[in-house]
Structure formats: C-alpha cells, structure tokens
Amino acid sequence: MSDVDQSTQPPADAPPPHPEPIKAIPVRHYGRWVAAVVVLGLVALLFRAFASGDVNWNAIPQYMFNGDILKGLRNTLLITFLSMVIGIVGGVILAVMRQSKNPVTSSVAWFYVWFFRGTPVYVQLFLWFNLGLVFHYIDIMPIYKDEWSDFMTPFLSALLGLGLNEAAYMAEICRAGLNAVDEGQTEAAHALGMSHGRTLRRIIVPQAMRVIVPPTGNEVINMLKTSSLVIAVQYYDLLQAAQNVGRDSGVVVEMLILAAAWYLIATTVLSIGQYYLERYYARGSSRQLPPTPLQRIRAQLAGGFKRPGGAA
To answer: Which UniProt keywords apply (predicted)?
Structure first.
C-alpha cells in the first residue's frame, strides 16, 4: 500500500467546491445593427420628404372635427356595420346550406359563393347602381312597387354591393369553422336525442366560434377600408367628404391625409375589440390566458417599484 498524505484530502463531510462561473460570450448580431441602420435611414428620408413638401399640416387638426368630415365618418361606420351584419347572417346561412345533404341547397350556395367571390366588388357596386337601365320598375306584387331609380338609392347600392359580396367570404369562413369541430361532437349530441338545429346552436357553433372569430375580425377591418369604394355609387362616405372639403378649401392632399388618419383610428379601435373577443372565445382551449397589454404594463410598473432583494 502506498502512503497517502491525509492532510491534502478534504474531509468527508465538507461541501463540494463551488464551480467557477461560466464566462458567457454573447453572440454578435451584426446583421441586426445593419438592418436597424438601414430602416432608420429610410424612415428619416421619408420624414425629410414630407417635411420639405408644401404640406399645410395646420389644416389637418383644423378640419379634424369638421361637420362634413364627421358626417362622412358616421356614414362609413354605418355602411360597414350594416354590410357586416348582412355578410355574417348570409354567410352563416350559406355555410349551413353548403353542409346540407340536399343537392339543391348545396348547389345554390356553391354557385353564390363562386359568383360573388369571382367578381370584383367594384364591379358589383356599379352593377347594382346601374340596374335601372334595364329594370325601370321594381314590382313585388303584394308588398312593394316603385320606380327603380327611386328604389335603388346610393345607400342601398352600397349596402347590397358590400353586404352580398361579404356573405360569400363569410360563408367560407363559417364553413371552415364548422368543419373544424370534430364529428364525434355531433354524433354524441344526436345520441343524447338532440335535434340537428339544437346541436348546431348548443354544441357546434360555440366550439366553431374560436376558429370563426379571428378571420371575421379581419373581415370587419377590411370592410371598413373597402367601404371607400362606395364613392363609385355616389354614397357620401369619409373619402367623399374629404375630397369635397379639400376641393372647397384648397387643401386636397391634407384632407386625404386626414381621411387616412380617421381610417387608422377606426381600424385601431376595431383591432383592440377583435383582440378581446378572440381572448373571450379562447377560454375553452387555453388553461391560462396570456396577459393583456394592460396587464403586462401593470406588471412591468409593479416590478419597477421592487428592490433587488425582493422587498417593496
């Protein structure tokens, strides 16, 4: 046996030595810095171009709450809301018709979706507005009869052109949501004695809403912007109001910038509503919902008042 110097050996009950700290060298992301410099340079050039242009920036806040501008904004929001109501109701009906085993109803629904998705909404607006050239009267015998020019107003032309076109897109969104629900849900509901209609209302549609809501929110925002096309049928909307005010006051470009600002404000409000609506319907699929932006801000503010030791 070899002699071992016991003085150099640590005692058996001694704690293990602490490992040396790891010297982590951060990865250099030079591409990010280059991209940031390029983007900031482009933004600076854009601001410089607008700053050097002959733009009367004072006219934008001056006409921000002009009566004509607000009237056009109100009409834009109204036509957007009513068109989406027609689109959502019609889309649900068409989606159920597409799912039907009746070949007549499914074929009619397929043809409707094929036609309205295949033609531009701008053409459809012009078509509704100019049908008076071939139909002089509208005659629904027991209900209504009038001249077509009095019946098909710019408002009704815009409503039909936007709403019926939107129904075709909403039909496909609703059909995708209904197909996303497992067939076993329907079979289990029928085994419990529930009718087909009650199964749709109580079982299928609530689960399909989680799939339907996000694209529907996008369609609402898209409808708000697409509503600017109703200027083609002489409906007084935000764009028409901005053009009229700009032509009368001599600040055409400034009023178009003002119209863009109002569109951005409206789409921002709709985006916030869409976020919370999606969060509401995500309760059944997520055990813990992610914090809202307001909750994240509050958490960051609360964390800033805490000391490093943990005490407030």
So the answer is: Amino-acid transport, Cell membrane, Membrane, Transmembrane, Transmembrane helix, Transport
User: The pTM is what?
Assistant: 0.76
Weakest mean pLDDT among 148-157, 201-210, 301-310? 301-310
CA dihedral of 30, 32, 34, 38, whole degrees rounded to 10 = 180
* Other residues' Cβ atoms within 10 Å of the Cβ of residue 128: 19
Supply the pLDDT for residue 7: 56
Q: Give yes or no for residue 303 having a pLDDT over 90.
A: no
Q: Which residues pair with 146 in a beta bridge?
A: 138
- Extract the tokens encoding 51: 């700053």
**How many domains in the chain?**
1
Q: Burial-class residue 312 by CB neighbours within 10 Å (0-12, 13-18, 19+).
A: exposed
Asked if the structure places residue 50 within a domain, the reply is no
Single-letter amino acid code for the residue at 50: F
Rounded distance, CA 168 to CA 114, Å? Answer: 8
Question: Rounded to whole angstroms, how far apart are CA atoms 259 and 240?
Answer: 10
User: What is the band of 205 on the pLDDT scale with cuts at 50, 70, 90?
Assistant: confident
159 occurs within a structural domain: yes
Domain of residue 65 covers: 58-285
H helix runs in 181-204, sequence order: 183-191, 196-199
Which CATH number belongs to the domain containing residue 221 in this structure? 1.10.3720.10
* Alpha-carbon dihedral sign for residues 50, 51, 52, 57: positive
68 closest CA partner among 265, 244, 310: 244
* Cα dihedral value 88, 90, 93, 98, nearest 10: -100
